[in-house]
Amino acid sequence: MPIAATVNGKTVEFDAPPDMPLLWALRDLLGMTGTKFGCGIGQCGACTVHLDGRPVRSCMLPIGEIVGRVTTIEAIGETPEGQRIQRAWLEHEVVQCGYCQCGQIMAAAALLARDSSPDDAQIDAAMAGNICRCCTYVRIREAIKDA
Questions:
Q1: Read out DSSP for the chain?
Q2: Average pLDDT of the chain to the nearest whole number
Q3: Are 13 and 50 within one domain?
């Protein structure tokens, strides 16, 4: 039986087992490759998407448990927070290898939707689970402040 969900404002159906992680449903079934596979255990943040505006690890969320609206990196630029973040990311030259940036941007967008002027401690807390192997954390923090 197909599993219905709302992804980026559109109703989709996944013809897959209910325990399939959302990450693989997005990438393999919908062809949405912006969300990245990192660790597969919810620790690195590369697979972060929003579920009703909250950042969640899509590698750990079975499609059968989706309740709410999923937003991916493909749609985040359509939001005011996403547009501000993308501009700030470019201005501060945040990206090096770029692999983690989808998850970083998704976490930052969720933070800025809740608090448009977070302090360093709030930024650090919101971004704590998102790992950047290139260590651009200082630039990420500055970009979030500017956004």
A1: --EEEEETTEEEEE-S-TTSBHHHIIIIIS---SSPPS-SSSSS-TTEEEETTEEEETTT-BGGG--SEEE-HHHHTTSHHHHHHHHHHHHTT--SS-TTHHHHHHHHHHHHHH-SS--HHHHHHHHTT---TT--HHHHHHHHHH-
A2: 95
A3: yes
Place of tokens 């709410």: 68
Could you report the per-residue pLDDT of 73-108, keeping only the tens digit for each?
A: 999 988 888 899 999 999 999 988 888 999 999 999
18 and 66 share one domain: yes
Cα separations (Å) of 14 from 8, 29, 134? 15, 7, 35
Residue 62 contacts by C-beta under 8 Å, 6 or more apart in sequence?
A: 18, 19, 20, 21, 22
| Of 75, 107, 126, the domain-final residue | 75
- Say how many residues make up the chain: 147
Strand partners for 51? 54, 70
Task: Kindly report, residue by residue over 8-24, the tens digit of the pLDDT.
Answer: 999 999 999 999 999 99
Q: What is the pLDDT of residue 38?
A: 94
Residues 21 and 36 in one domain: yes
